[in-house]
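I have been asked to look over a protein record a colleague put together. Alongside the sequence sits a line of tokens, each denoting a local backbone shape. I have pasted the whole thing underneath without changing anything:
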Amino acid sequence: MSVAAATGDGFARALAAKDFERLSGLLDPAADFRALTPNRAWEATGPEEIEPILRAWFDHEDEIEELERVESEGFADLERVGYRLRVRNPKGLFAVEQQAYLATKDGMISWLRILCSGFRPIDG
């Protein structure tokens, strides 16, 4: 597994665990972040700006029950990481899927783009 693939996999697993300290540790101090969720576009630079965004996506009421899938493959000079989460909160049970493209520098994420499906209701 390449450094970028391992880093992307680590990112997905840390997000699923809501381990924001570990997530921040994967980010280069100057990491360039852009993301698109169903209702908003996000932009940030560095762990101090990125971490609060990731916390906002999955707040204290969102219990991530399972990381159902992680897929990773190289794409040109980037790594593509797709992951699916099973999330329960007071509104019900949901699937959340994200596609991330990332670049690494010295084993840390230096460039990150994420597209999120949003919370999609599932029977459970």
About this structure: The two ends are 34 Å apart (CA to CA).
